[in-house]
Amino acid sequence: MEKPTTIDEYIAAHPADVQEILQKVRETIKTAAPQATEAISYGMPTFKLHGNLVHFGAFKTHLGFYPIPSGMDQFQAELAQFKSGKGSVQFPFNQPMPYELITKIVKFRVTENLEKAAAKKRK
Between the CA of residue 39 and those of 7, 49, 98, 101, what are the distances in Å? Predict the structure, then answer.
């Protein structure tokens, strides 16, 4: 498979059942961060707003979601049931996708990035 250059290409390269989940995650992020722009970064769908906001990607058995460490720290209790790393969490495909939690994390990251951008302007 060639490296995708758009989120549409990335989603199209996966099986139909996974495409459905990826598209719903994409729509969930777009709704939570309507001013963010789409990109492919690190070979994965990425949303940017004054820097990287979140990344996500499909793997064999799970959706990887990457809200950077601050997004993980802020929602530590709600993410505790999922396998996670420093700035990532795995949402298994065989469980309901936590779209409401994804929305809350994305909104938190939007606020965080907007505050950082505003602080830079004040300097």
Answer: 7, 11, 23, 22
Element (H, E) at 91: strand 89-92
Instruction: State pTM to two decimals.
Output: 0.94
Which two tokens mark 76? 């530590």
Domain boundaries, the chain: 7-107
Residues 6+ apart with CB under 8 A from 61: 92, 93, 94
The residue type of 77 is: A
Which regions of the chain are under pLDDT 70? 1, 123
Residue 8 CB neighbours (<10 A): 13
- What is the per-residue pLDDT for 71? 92
Report the distance separating Cα 37 and Cα 23, nearest Å. 15
pLDDT computed for residue 1 by the predictor = 54
Scanning 1-123, the segments in alpha helix (DSSP H) are: 7-12, 16-32, 68-74, 76-79, 99-122
The one-letter amino acid code at 36 reads: A
Q: State the CATH class of domain 7-107.
A: alpha beta
Q: What is the pLDDT of residue 120?
A: 84
